[in-house]
Specification:
The chain is an all-alpha fold and 449 residues long. It is built from 20 helices and no strands.
């Protein structure tokens, strides 16, 4: 037997294929952890330090080069805990005397400040930030483990794990200490578990997602057509109201601050080089066409229309809760005004879970979804077009006209395509009943007796 025949024999062995897949995923995990360590070891306000002190990913992203960090978004929550301990408003961006590393204004629910913020503020900032990064890594590991057990072909399992482990936006999420990935991963896990008739674990994951940020509440239309989903949706709404309404009733000014930061009018604040949303690209087109005055009305109609049409289709076709929720999340991504590059970490996890169902029915549209997933996972060409002047708040004037469109479109176009694909899937493959949706490839037909 020749060496080539022996190699083919080994490659065809299921045991050796599993071993090769495990080795590949393990190697990617080691690379991922090495990059994560390089992120958390950075000094705070890293842009004031030499390049040797910066993470490997530093030159790849607008928000690493031109914004404060690492951990500036997480330290918004830390700052909120400090303010509460002093009897002050967590939505007040001032902090005197200053104990928190560089941070952004707090924009989450009061329960996050009362629990996560207060707990984080009880320990040193560095330890709190590292602990949050570990939480994000655990959510990532749980997502990979759940996808690995989905029953699909081995190459797809490896692809799911690889997409999450090498996701450039997720590494940016670690740098910023953000909530997006954890929120949408918990939403996807919860919806999948609800589809599989596991209401306790599914409902708990969905409630946790809704408490982290209110965005998962937009997925309620995907849940209410199913009995288990109605219970989970009711539990999430009850948890959000019960844990936050008493605080807002005692502090109405904080309700105004929370509402304005998250649901205020669709203006042009935040429309700068760090915005990677479709609405931002459309605004640039309105400006160049000389019709910027009509953008406010268009943006409001676009946001309401996109979410409204998606919700109506989901309610009409009654798809599995997972695919319905993903369609609504992509509708939110392409219609919200403040979409940053790290938000693509949530788009990646939604795309992977969408592929989980698309592969179960061997849908041809999955290959378009794979192409979109690859575009979301890879970094943008930012490193090729930006002069990387640390401390420069908006580098947009230094970019070429083409780069001003290219960078946001690298994420906005795949998200738009995935929204369309998710709607097509919802329309073409609704479940025949309220029975659990399939979680793996179709079973082979039974042989005739």
């Amino acid at each position: 037997m020749t060496w080539w025949a022996r190699a083919r024999g080994l490659a065809s062995s299921p045991r050796h294929r599993r071993l090769a897949a495990a080795c590949l995923v393990g190697a990617l995990a080691i690379v991922h952890l090495a990059l994560a360590v390089s992120i958390v070891r950075q000094p705070f306000d890293v842009n004031r330090y030499p390049a040797a002190d910066r993470a490997v990913i530093w030159p790849l992203h607008h928000d690493t080069v031109h914004r404060t960090g690492p951990g500036a978004d997480f330290f918004a929550t830390y700052h909120a805990g400090v303010k509460l301990a002093r009897g002050e408003s967590p939505y007040d961006a001032r902090e005197v005397p200053r104990v928190t590393p560089p941070y952004y204004p707090f924009r989450y629910l009061p329960i996050i400040a009362l629990t996560l913020g207060t707990g984080a503020a009880a320990i040193a900032p560095r330890a709190a930030y590292v602990a949050w990064v570990i939480v994000l890594e655990l959510v990532l590991a749980c997502s990979i483990a759940l996808l690995w057990r989905a029953g699909h072909a081995l190459p797809w399992k490896v692809a799911y794990a690889a997409a999450l482990l090498v996701s450039s936006p997720f590494l940016l999420e670690l740098h910023m200490g953000q909530f997006t990935f954890a929120t949408l991963a918990l939403l996807s896990i919860g919806a999948l578990q609800l589809d599989r008739a596991r209401p306790i674990s599914g409902g708990l994951a969905y409630v946790l997602a809704a408490l982290l940020t209110v965005v998962p509440l937009a997925a309620i239309p995907a849940l209410v057509r199913h009995r288990r989903g109605r219970l989970a949706a009711a539990a999430a709404v009850a948890a959000v109201v019960a844990t936050n309404a008493p605080y807002f009733l005692r502090h109405p000014g904080d309700w105004t601050a929370f509402y304005d930061r998250n649901f205020g009018p669709v203006g042009t604040d935040g429309f700068h080089g760090g915005n990677y949303g479709l609405l931002y690209v459309l605004w640039k087109l309105f400006v160049e066409l000389g019709i910027a005055r009509s953008f406010q009305s268009f943006a409001t109609a676009w946001q309401l229309g996109t979410l409204g049409v998606t919700a109506l289709i989901v309610l009409w076709r009654k798809p599995p809760m997972l695919t319905g929720a993903i369609a609504l999340m992509f509708a939110h991504m392409i219609s919200y005004k403040h979409v940053w590059e790290h938000h693509a970490s949530g788009a990646v996890v939604c795309a992977v879970f969408l592929l989980l169902h698309a592969n179960a029915v061997a849908w041809r549209g999955r290959w378009i979804a794979v192409a979109c997933l690859i575009a979301l996972v890879l970094p943008t060409p930012f490193v090729l077009v930006d002069p990387r002047v640390a401390g420069q708040w908006d580098p947009l004037p230094s970019w070429s006209p083409a780069a001003r469109y290219l960078l946001p479109l690298c994420k906005a176009l795949p998200e738009l395509a995935l929204w369309i694909l998710s709607l097509v899937y919802v329309i073409r493959f609704p479940p025949p009943s309220d029975a659990p949706a399939p979680s793996g490839p179709p079973a082979p037909a039974a042989a005739a007796p």
